[in-house]
Amino acid sequence: MHMRPILLSALALVTLFAGLSTAPAHAAPRVGLVQAVGVTATSVTLTWPKYRGAKTYRVQRAANYAFTKGVRTVKAKRTRATVRGLRPGVEYCFKVRAYNRKGRHVATSARTCKPTAAISVPSRGATVSTLTYNICSKACDSSKEAWWAGMKPWAQRRPVVTRTVLGSGADVIALQESSGWRTVAADLRPTYTAVPDFGHYQTSSLLFRTSRFDQVMVTETTPRAATIELGNGRRATWSELRDQRTGKRTIFVSAHLSPDKSAAANRRRKAETLSLMRQVDAANTNRSRVVYLGDFNSNKSRGRAQDTPARVMGGAGYLDAYDQARTLSRPNYNSGTKGELKPVKSYTWGDHVDKVWIRKGDGIGVLSWANINPRRGAKYAGPVGSDHCPIRVVLRLS
């Protein structure tokens, strides 16, 4: 009797079944993108897409990303829930679990994390709409990444950007990478006035609604405004504006810091942020409140140690308007587009490098934050205006 072939066959079967038993399991079904669309000092409102076959949901919240601290559960029958009883200015993480009609757990979402508001909204005051938008005008025309993504030349993107800016309804507009934009500035007149030194390569430009603001003047012909050097070839533009409705003054700043994720780039951003704040503070002889806008190349996914702009701004009392906004639209759509029509979705923090910073105690609250990149269905409308999305933040200034 030939035992060797039989033994080899048996061994092969054992090996096969052992391999099957140790093969990685399929990933658990996922509830779709969970987004924090509303925030107060003590609550966060979440929405998510309906999961097929789900009859009820449970929202889990925790005081840390690992879900090992302060875990609580809120039941929901619909695809929206408000989690209450939270502490002001504390970041919480959330997961949504879906259950079928038999009460069996069938899917869980990815985590999303959001702090409650630390800055209150004044009950009275003037509402000011701001827009920050890296338009990547000539820079994207020479970018290989933009070319591979299918971005159109600036001549074709320019009218898209112009329509978006005009349609935003913004009172103050901060633009970055705005080289060659003088013609569009002319197109926007008389609705908007451009601050001097507008249009340099890599300059962060600033415009304001002519019917809403006046520039504060040093002399009859010289406004309190400047384009300043931050180092590393980076610039920022600031202007002190007077609200025609209230007579109050505010300095608005448009800035663009160095890109990339390397340690060297992180050090550059720290130096640039410190330079920015020092120069604006020195120029602010009227001690007006300041609102910073722009592409800060800063986001939470890099970790606190690597997010030097947020550390410097936070050390001076400034907080990200995204974290303070009472309502949010498309909060987890990354403010970068990669030049593509398909939105980049960031599940945990949103990953917005385009910022508006306000300082606690300045009497400025955030009513809303919105990604207003034109959209057609589930995608952005083509051609995209830039490799960044326009971010509109509505403020209330007491």
Automatic annotation (TrEMBL):
<feature type="domain" description="Fibronectin type-III">
    <location>
        <begin position="30"/>
        <end position="119"/>
    </location>
</feature>
<dbReference type="InterPro" id="IPR013783">
    <property type="entry name" value="Ig-like_fold"/>
</dbReference>
<feature type="signal peptide">
    <location>
        <begin position="1"/>
        <end position="27"/>
    </location>
</feature>
<keyword id="KW-0624">Polysaccharide degradation</keyword>
<protein>
    <submittedName>
        <fullName>Fibronectin type III domain-containing protein</fullName>
    </submittedName>
</protein>
<keyword id="KW-0119">Carbohydrate metabolism</keyword>
<dbReference type="InterPro" id="IPR036691">
    <property type="entry name" value="Endo/exonu/phosph_ase_sf"/>
</dbReference>
<keyword id="KW-0732">Signal</keyword>
<keyword id="KW-0326">Glycosidase</keyword>
<dbReference type="InterPro" id="IPR003961">
    <property type="entry name" value="FN3_dom"/>
</dbReference>
<dbReference type="InterPro" id="IPR036116">
    <property type="entry name" value="FN3_sf"/>
</dbReference>
<keyword id="KW-0378">Hydrolase</keyword>
<dbReference type="Pfam" id="PF00041">
    <property type="entry name" value="fn3"/>
</dbReference>
